[in-house]
Design goal:
192 residues; mainly beta; 12-stranded mixed sheet; two-stranded antiparallel sheet; 1 helix; 7% helix; flat
Length: 192
């Protein structure tokens, strides 16, 4: 599975729940009766992403990323830029495969073992996507190839909650706004 590049941060992102929790499939029969069943029982998150004044190279990189996913066909991991813990309160222990938060905000921000995480802006080469195995208020246990070093006191270190998403449509809207600047909009929907 591919991963969204964390540095492709939208200038505006609007996360919201796109469904009330169920997608009911209704099958009508010739007799006039109906069969109803739920396609999914969990709310799906939708992310509306807007980029303004993108550089030409970033615009084409995102365009190629979407093309490689065949538009809405293939899924990828996307960091939720609204659900994160940042700063010197974070400590990474690569031997124990843990990330600690002295403010104990992981659970209150919705981190759980059904999701992955993205570590960014590490000063010790710990950037990347990791699978969560357990989540406590102040401790994440991760699996993955943590090739960096133990880390603490990094004011820029960020841990994002990650969603598995796909593009909602096969196309997205883009505009050339100057000789080398582009605007771009698209929606992503969570995949289970």
């Amino acid at each position: 599975m591919a991963d969204w590049t964390e540095t492709w941060r939208p200038q505006a992102i609007t996360p919201y729940v796109s469904r009330m929790g169920h997608k009911t499939l209704i099958t009508p029969f010739e007799s006039g009766k109906e069969q109803r069943r739920s396609k999914w029982a969990k709310e799906k998150n939708r992310f509306v992403c807007h980029f303004n004044a993108l550089s030409k190279s970033t615009f084409y990189a995102i365009k190629e990323f979407a093309k490689a996913r065949s538009g809405a066909y293939d899924s990828f991991r996307f960091p939720n830029y609204d659900q994160f813990v940042k700063g010197t309160r974070l400590t990474i222990d690569v031997t124990a495969d843990t990330i600690a938060d002295s403010s104990s905000e992981f659970s209150s921000l919705g981190f759980d073992s059904d999701y992955d995480i993205c570590v960014a802006h590490s000063s010790e080469s710990n950037d990347g996507y990791y699978f969560l195995t357990t989540v406590a208020n102040n401790l994440l246990t991760i699996t993955g190839n943590v090739n960096g070093n133990d880390e603490s006191l990094n004011n820029f270190l960020v841990v994002y909650k990650v969603y598995t998403v796909r593009f909602l449509q096969d196309t997205f809207q883009s505009n050339l706004i100057s000789t080398d600047k582009y605007s771009l909009s698209f929606e992503l929907i969570e995949v289970f």
